[in-house]
From TrEMBL:
Transmembrane segments: none annotated. This is Ketosynthase chain-length factor. It comes from the Bacteria. Residues 6-410 form the Ketosynthase family 3 (KS3) domain. One of its GO terms (molecular function) is 3-oxoacyl-[acyl-carrier-protein] synthase activity. The keyword Acyltransferase applies. One of its GO terms (biological process) is fatty acid biosynthetic process. Keywords: Acyltransferase, Transferase. Belongs to the thiolase-like superfamily. Beta-ketoacyl-ACP synthases family.
């Protein structure tokens, strides 16, 4: 992604809207305490569907953070992204005064795997139930994968390079890499991340075709990767947005450098071909380490993909052994998402946020609901583990076959 002689990309702000917290502070407190918020699905219209457990964002009122004129144009997934972007901008102390004279220096990149299913479902119900005159004009844009990027850029007045990664789950890490490349080419700052809202009835029905979706109705047992009881993953809504800046530009305005995006790599091995994902994920890890000029033994913590499918879990454990050698069984591994569910493209961005916070506070958060680990991995369970963390590895795989790895270095700043 960059070398010491190039423009380095650093994280200066974090904004989180997640099932375990609608702010970065509440998210981190629940994450480090290992609190699981997985529960029975309560969204209207989902009561009789086979999906019984999910990670829902509760206590979130978008009107508290977003103006009405934007709310009526957008789906829940964009509400999450816009609210998280607000929080990230505030956290980075990046305001209009910082870019009024150079709006083309700030870009926006988001990743999305499902789009605006709830908005689209509502409008289609109006079409078939009441007629075409009852369908609003925003149906044409609110469902679209790029809606979050567009609305964040319009609302913030960001005129720099903008884009969207329409992908499976690993797209969350690919969006961060895209932001890094954008900064390397000359942009000063990028608002980047992902948020998803896959729990509307239509969206849930679309997911029921995934064999890897957990159908258990016990929240404590529905999502337990790396264990003998692994039976699939639990979906979630929410996500995170980060402010990524060019290091010199960030420091010149007095921003706190919280982490460095040091290296990234991605591969593709095919939909649900979990045995093949071993090789693909190992190649991604090798590539990210090489990009970061990082030796395997320098990795201090791994934020695992942790799909919860036995074949996929085994492939991930073997991929880590292939890429990190003996260090794979010694480095702490964690998967906080077992307490919140997998928010598709939002999941690895939430893991990235947690990794930055873990390095800042010197603690590896635990993996909720996981006890009987059956792989040769040092999975942190039960309680958080204090540790000196300078370098973190974040992994992600998507159901459609993408694999991605991201290396983060601890920044020079400190929590505010």
């Amino acid at each position: 992604m960059s070398s010491p002689k190039e423009r380095r990309s650093v994280v200066t702000g974090i904004g989180v809207i997640a099932p375990n917290g609608v702010s970065t502070e509440t998210f981190w407190k629940a994450t480090v305490e290992g609190i699981s918020v997985l529960d029975h699905v309560t969204r209207e219209g989902c009561e009789h569907l086979p999906l019984k457990v999910a990670g829902e964002v509760r206590g979130f009122d978008p009107a508290d953070l977003i103006e009405e004129r934007y709310l009526v144009q957008t789906d829940r997934f964009t509400h999450f992204a816009m609210a998280a972007a607000n929080l990230a901008l505030d956290d980075a102390r990046l305001g209009r005064a910082d870019y009024n004279d150079s709006p083309f220096a700030v870009g926006v990149v988001t990743a999305a795997g499902s789009g605006g299913g709830e908005f689209g479902q509502r409008e289609l119900q109006r079409l078939w139930g009441q007629g075409s005159r009852h369908v609003g004009p925003y149906q044409s844009i609110a469902w679209f994968y790029a809606a979050s990027t567009g609305q964040i850029s319009i609302r913030g007045g960001f005129k720099g390079p903008c884009g969207v990664v329409a992908s499976d789950e690993a797209g969350g890490l690919d969006a961060l890499a895209h932001a890094g490349r954008t900064i390397r080419r000359g942009t000063d700052a990028v608002v980047v991340g992902a948020a998803e809202a896959p729990l509307a009835p239509y969206s849930v029905v679309c997911q029921l075709g995934y064999d890897d979706l957990s159908k258990l109705d016990d929240p404590a047992r529905a999502y337990r990767p790396f264990t003998s009881g692994a039976c699939g993953f639990v979906p979630a809504e929410g996500g995170a947005m980060l402010i990524v800046e060019e290091e010199v530009a960030a420091e010149s305005r007095g921003a706190s450098v919280r982490a460095v995006l040091a290296g990234h790599a991605a591969t593709f091995t095919g939909a649900s071909l979990w045995e093949e994902s071993r090789d693909g994920l190992a190649h991604a890890i090798h590539g990210a380490l090489e990009d970061a000029r990082c030796a395997p033994e320098e990795i201090d913590v791994v934020f695992a993909d942790a799909l919860g499918v036995p074949a996929a879990d085994r492939a991930e454990a073997l991929a880590l052994a292939d890429a990190l050698g003996r260090h794979a069984s010694q480095v702490p591994v964690t998967a906080p998402k077992t307490g919140t569910g997998r928010a598709y493209c939002g999941a690895p961005v939430l893991d990235t946020a947690a990794a930055v916070l873990a390095m800042e506070y010197g603690v590896v958060p635990p993996t909720p609901n996981v006890v009987d680990v059956c792989h040769d991995l040092d999975v942190v369970t039960g309680r958080a583990r204090p540790a000196e963390l300078r370098t973190a590895l974040v992994l992600s795989r998507g159901l459609m076959g993408s694999n991605a790895a991201l290396v983060l270095r601890k920044g020079s700043g400190s929590p505010s």
